[in-house]
Specification:
- The chain has about 250 residues and is of the alpha/beta class.
- Helices cover about 30% and strands about 25% of the residues.
- The chain has a 5-stranded mixed beta sheet, covered by helices on one side. A 4-stranded mixed beta sheet has the order 2-1-12-13. A two-stranded antiparallel ribbon has the order 5-6.
- Strand 1, helix 1 and strand 2 form a beta-alpha-beta unit.
Length: about 250
């Protein structure tokens, strides 16, 4: 693999093929010469099959998120509504592709790709839950969660919130935000909501420099009305509201 200079980091697509197409177009316009994908690819009431087809055709360096595990677990027992919908609307070929995705991946010799933390796909790396909201974790907590990852750039996802954290030894942690879902609520580790405040698709451009990496967090307009309509057709008014407003 040739060394990537301008890397587009994606995460948390959640079956939103309209947002994914817009982000891919924008990243190419920004001169991206490589892509990585930090998981939570298909789960949700949108278009998981079309999303899987597009991602499989691109063959990006990709890790599995917690929702890949949860989707595949629907083979044995009914899952939550977002995972179950995606499971029922993808093919065996798509599920086999999900099965072979690693939980972490080193890319280009200097980048670690994970979904949550390097050791836990359901834990936030840069955030923690406080009084029903996601807030920035203390620096010491982030340091502990990133311990053992020697790569200079760590790309994570899971929280859907764009963020950058400079570790004390010069490593950089980047959460590009969510391509496909700008608000949600969750009950792990306790009930909380996440809101980005607009429907724009999020991703990051990470540019390699002589001393490390510089990062631009991107927000991209897309046809979110199509995603809202899909959520409503599939009986998920909560997703329709999240997609329409970026508010929970």
């Amino acid at each position: 693999m040739a060394s990537m200079i301008r890397l587009a980091a994606l995460a948390d697509i959640h079956g939103n093929v309209w947002a994914l197409e817009a982000v891919l177009k924008d990243a190419k316009g920004q001169g991206a010469d490589g892509f990585v994908n930090a998981g939570d690819l298909l789960s949700g009431p949108l278009d998981p099959a079309a999303t899987a087809d597009l991602l499989m055709s691109l063959d990006l360096p990709t890790v599995a998120g917690n929702h890949e595990r949860q989707l595949l677990a629907c083979e044995h027992a009914a899952g939550g509504p977002s995972d179950q919908y995606a499971f029922e609307h993808v093919s065996l070929r798509h599920r086999d592709w999900l099965r072979q995705l690693p939980s972490t991946l080193e890319v280009d010799g200097a980048i670690l790709l994970c979904h949550g933390t390097p050791s836990d796909d359901r834990a936030y790396l840069l955030e923690e839950v406080e009084r029903g909201r996601v807030v920035r974790a203390p620096a010491a907590v982030v340091e502990a969660r990133a311990a053992g990852a020697g790569q200079r750039l760590i790309v994570c996802g899971h929280s859907h919130q764009p963020g950058i954290h400079w570790l004390s030894d010069g490593r950089l942690v980047v959460n590009p935000g969510s391509v496909g879902l700008q608000a949600y609520d969750d009950d792990h580790p306790s009930f909380h909501v996440v809101e980005n405040g607009s429907p724009h698709a999020r991703y990051a451009i990470c540019e390699r420099t002589r001393s490390g990496w510089s990062v631009a967090l991107r927000s991209v307009e897309y046809d979110h009305a199509a995603a809202v309509a899909a959520a409503r057709r599939n009986g998920r008014e909560d997703w329709a509201r999240w997609l329409q407003t970026g508010r929970a």
